[in-house]
Write a structure and sequence with these properties.
Helices cover about 30% and strands about 20% of the residues. The chain is built from nine helices and ten strands. The strands form three sheets. It has a five-stranded mixed β-barrel. The protein is elongated and about 120 Å long.
Amino acid sequence: MSLDVLSPDPEPARGCGGCSYKGMSTAVEDAFVGVRFAEETNVTLCRSPGGGVLAKGDRVVVETQDGPNVGHVEQSPMPVFKPCQKSNARRVLRRATREDLEAWERKVKNELLAKRFCRDRARELRLEMKVSRVDFTLNARRATFFFTANGRVDFRQLVRDLSQRFSTRVKMVQVGARDEAGLLGGIGVCGRTLCCSSWLKDFQPISIQMAKRQNLSLNPSKISGQCGRLLCCLAYEDPSYQKRGPRKKTAARPPTDESTTSPSTSSPSTSTEPMPRSRNRLANRDRRAGADRSQGGNR
């Protein structure tokens, strides 16, 4: 009689978003390439069509969340570190043709014009908002406007003007200061690309207590990022400092002198206490008077 042994389910890896495999792999496959869109700082993992090989610098059309978009191959082939990355890889539709490149040039031109028109129109309507970025689809059927504002903005008239001016469907998205820094990109105080524009997607609350626990300077220019908020990297090592606990302050010891002796072994004649200045002056005078009397007696 045979017994069927059921193996336990593999424990999902932390922070993987559903991946059921542990460990990392540096396997390089020709079917995956890294594509960069416009001036984005991060590279998107994409799967080449039919497993074909794409060379670095090739212009390709990729199926994105907002529709087809044109980018160029930045890394070929690209290593895949976790199996879940394969399922999340974007699909390369085809190599970019002349029509695709012309549509991409019109897309870039429309984004610049729409951003300028939106700023001018918002100023005329007295809307307290800042337009950060504009994204058009490759077929120019939909446009997304990202903006920041301190409160709610009534942009209904602005949407009507934009839709009439560019004959497209307009979507307004209000973002925060950190999201704006991730959209625009840049270089941090560490000299590397901003985490929010490259890999960091989930923002957690940052407090000044994190900087105090790490004994960092509380100068705002040193602990603030491009967004004007506290640096997100303050939270990377904060759990280690919480486990370590506060540092114990030790009292400063007085400097030791080899010539001093302990009170128990010192005699009254060999006292180490410094003599006051007035007593020292009287002792010197008595010593000189004694020396003069001895010289007079000898004569």
